[in-house]
Write a structure and sequence with these properties.
Layout (H helix, E strand, L loop, with lengths): L5 H18 L6 H18 L5 H26 L3 H83 L2 H11 L3 H120 L2 E2 L15 E3 L2 E4 L6 E4 L2 E4 L5 E3 L4 E9 L3 E11 L2 E10 L1 E2 L6 E2 L4 E4 L10 E8 L2 E3 L7
Parallel strand pairs: 1-8
Antiparallel strand pairs: 2-5, 3-4, 5-13, 6-12, 7-8, 7-11, 8-9, 9-13, 10-12, 13-14
Helix pairs in contact: 1-3, 1-4, 2-3, 4-6, 5-6
Length: 440
């Protein structure tokens, strides 16, 4: 048999308390302040180092007090039904899943916004590339028209030259007929001008041809740029659509998770109401046992006068995890009595009779699991009864007389319990009192 894992109980206590707070099932007040104080004190105690011996002792005492408060909370949680604990755990799980879903949605939306901005930028670049292509094509068309005009001008110049004949021959012919030397000079100048004009036409034609080749290259480059931008825009559009689908899925997940959380919370509220009714029935059952306790004390014929402290034997060797006392229940929010002392035990660990007496009741309770009442007769003029709760089972029956130290059963975690422990109650005249005032 293994001992009950205390660390796990502490984590479970923290989780359930947080879940109850999330549901609004915990009343604000003493316990809330107590837990907050305990948490702060643990942090303070853990962070202090290199203090003087006196301060160290003070911290140890404070830490011990904090541990005691934590054990108290754990004991209170043992009084919560398994159904409510499961419902609260589901609410906590849904709450965590909702936070994750909302976070994922925020991430996807951020990516989608960035993708849409990039898509707009890429569209602008595509439009600019298309404008450059249109301008290049227009310039190419103009260049082609200009080149055609220049080619025609050169052709016309050549034709005119052939029609007029070679300039040198025309000048000699005129000189041999009736022309003068001056006339020949003027003819030569005119001929040179014509030749220069033709040379310029050829030069312009060459330049236009080169420019046209450049413009054709620009058109080709602009076409390639447009194609690149179009392909990039198409690829990015696919990315944008994928992110939009992810965003839609994330929104659906958030909605579904929120619905799950609401349903879990509603279920927890219903379970709480059911458990409160169960508690009321339990109180009625305990009231009916009061008369049985009194009759058992009278029938025993035992009347002892003794000092209360040390009158009872410790029922199990485990440490106290939650003491007797009044407090606000962390799950149900009511101000109530934790009517016994909780001892940490092994599952199946033997439990002994804290005193000699007669078994007057043994039954199952949804809250306390397997219960056992032992009447110890009259002590100092008042009936004294001890009660064992959450047991795995008992080896004695109603009507049996048991001796102090006799094994009466084995510890367990039945009923509303988070782990194996003994909830030990002492009744004086049917009223619960602090068991530690009677245990030596």
């Amino acid at each position: 048999m293994r001992p009950f894992p205390h660390a796990r109980r502490q984590r479970l206590a923290s989780a359930l308390t947080a879940g109850a707070l999330a549901l609004g099932l915990v009343a604000s007040g003493a316990l809330g302040d107590e837990v907050a104080t305990a948490t702060g004190e643990v942090a303070s105690a853990a962070s202090v180092g290199g203090v003087a011996a006196a301060d160290s002792d003070k911290l140890k005492k404070k830490k011990s007090g904090v541990k005691k408060k934590i054990r108290t909370v754990q004991g209170d949680l043992d009084d919560a039904s398994a159904g409510l604990r499961a419902a609260i755990a589901k609410v906590q799980s849904a709450r965590s899943a909702l936070a994750d879903a909302r976070s994922e949605l925020a991430v996807v939306r951020t990516k989608l916004d960035a993708a849409r901005e990039r898509d707009a930028l890429m569209q602008d670049r595509l439009e600019a590339a298309e404008e450059r292509l249109a301008a290049a094509r227009e310039a190419l068309a103009d260049g082609q028209d200009s080149l055609a005009d220049q080619e025609q001008a050169v052709k016309d110049s050549i034709v005119d030259g052939y029609q007029d004949g070679p300039a040198e021959l025309a000048a000699i012919s005129e000189l041999l007929t009736d022309g003068t030397t001056d006339d020949l000079t003027q003819q030569q100048i005119a001929s040179d001008a014509i030749v220069d004009h033709q040379a310029r036409l050829y030069d312009q034609l060459d330049a236009s041809t080169v420019l046209l080749a450049v413009q054709e290259g620009q058109v080709s480059e602009a076409k390639e740029a447009v194609e690149v931008q179009r392909e990039a825009a198409a690829d990015h559009l696919s990315t944008v659509r994928s992110l939009e689908a992810q965003a839609e899925d994330a929104r659906d997940t958030v909605a579904a998770t929120l619905a799950t959380r609401v349903a879990a919370k509603q279920k927890a509220v219903r379970i709480k109401a059911r458990d409160v009714r169960t508690l009321k029935k339990l109180k009625a059952k305990e009231s009916s046992l009061q008369a049985r306790i009194e009759r058992a004390a009278q029938r025993s014929g035992r009347s002892v006068t003794a000092k209360a402290s040390g009158y009872l034997t410790r029922p199990v060797p485990g440490v106290v995890t939650s003491p007797y006392g009044w407090r606000i229940h962390p799950i149900y929010g009511y101000w109530g009595l934790h009517d016994g002392t909780d001892f940490s035990v092994y599952c199946g660990e033997p439990m002994v009779a804290a005193g000699s007496g007669t078994v007057i009741a043994k039954y199952w309770s949804d809250v306390y699991g397997h219960r056992l009442y032992i009447s110890l007769g009259t002590v100092n003029g008042k009936s004294l009864t001890i009660v064992y709760n959450h047991a795995e089972g008992y080896r004695v029956n109603v009507g049996d007389y048991v001796e102090r130290g006799q094994v009466v059963g084995r510890a367990g975690t039945t009923g509303w319990s988070t782990g194996c422990h003994l909830h030990f109650t002492v009744l004086v005249n049917g009223t619960a009192v602090d068991p530690m005032n009677w245990i030596g």
